[in-house]
Amino acid sequence: MNEQISRLMDGDADESEVERVCHGCATGPVMETWVCYHMIGDALRGSVSEATSAAPGFSQRFAAMLAAEPTILAPQSRLTHRLGVSWAIAATVAAVAVVGWTAVSLTDAPTTAIARAREAADVRAAQLRPQAISPDYLLAHQEYSPATAMQGAGPYLRAVAVPAGDAQR
Amino acid sequence: MGDREVDQQLVERAQRGDKRAFEMLVMKYQRKLGRLLSRLVRDPAEVEDVTQEAFIKAYRALPGFRGDSAFYTWLYRIAINTAKNYLVAMGRRAPTSTTFDHEEAESFEDAEGLRNSSTPEDELIGKQIANTVNRAMEALPEDLRTAITLREIEGLSYEEIANVMNCPIGTVRSRIFRARDAIAAELRPMLGTDENRRW
């Protein structure tokens, strides 16, 4: 266990070893080794006063205080957070790409789709242009007109010319 | 992996509900934090109270810690604010924000110019600890002494030490552990018994 503590201090322990050391720190000797190894580092770096400014029994008093605290649970780890940020960035880039591609496609359209749309509009306008149609033609084909009030009865109706005197009767 | 990454490993475990991981961080930094706070709050009993309060506040705020800064930098800010609030609550003058710059957190090792509030007894024990560690270092075989010096004083990684000492990383790992263990064997009696721990 002491070798794992030494490796953990130096960032050389894997996750399972970190877990074992943390679990072992529930017992006094493992935590004492953790403190002792750090104190050696402090002393070697010349931080002598740091090595002594801990009040005797601090660890026991603090452990009691911490035990009274509700256990925190922050499920979003740093890695998850980073992944979330990465996904958000990727989604943003994808959205910008789709919008950009669509815009570029529309910008290139005049030669194709927009030109065709213009031609179609011209054709339609030509079709709607009023033409001089003879009244005789219209009268002869009245029965086929969809605008007739009695649709379907057209073929059976006949236009009749009535002399003005008979009409007044 | 540096000190910051080691702390982050423990922080993430604590965030997943492992209180012992947070206790390990507390035990790692309590002396450093206690020394910092003794510059603001002079009375040793008050220093301990404020230190404990700062750690508890840090524990409660831990879900919000995302590792954007080093754990100790974050802890340092909490401790300074806790001490200021304490002084204000006690009707004493809190230092201005410029007195304790956050950037100072990273270079706090430098003790030059600090007003030390340690008692004569603390200073005596500090000297005894330093002498014990130095004697144990002198008694170490040369390869162990070099390995732990390069690690603890020079801050080199295992890989860098392996290059300097021209040996495999596994050997470096073993030498550093054996050096620590040998020094710790001399130091442990000074840390007190279970009933009277000095930590």
Structure description:
The complex is a heterodimer of chains A (169) and B (199). By secondary structure, chain A is mainly alpha-helical. Chain A has helices at residues 2-9, 15-24, 28-44, 48-52, 58-68, 78-108, 113-128, 135-140, 164-168. The radius of gyration of chain A is 47 Å and the shape is rod-shaped. Chain A starts with a helix and ends with a helix. With 199 residues, chain B is mainly α. Chain B has helices at residues 3-15, 19-37, 44-61, 71-89, 120-139, 142-152, 158-165, 169-187. In chain B, helix 1 (3-15) packs across helix 2 (19-37), helix 3 (44-61) crosses helix 4 (71-89) and helix 6 (142-152) packs across helix 8. Chain B is globular. Residues 108-115 of chain B have low confidence and may be disordered. Classes of the chains: A mainly alpha (169), B mainly alpha (199). At the A-B interface, helix 1, helix 2, helix 3, helix 4 and helix 5 of A face helix 1, helix 2, helix 3, helix 5 and helix 6 of B.
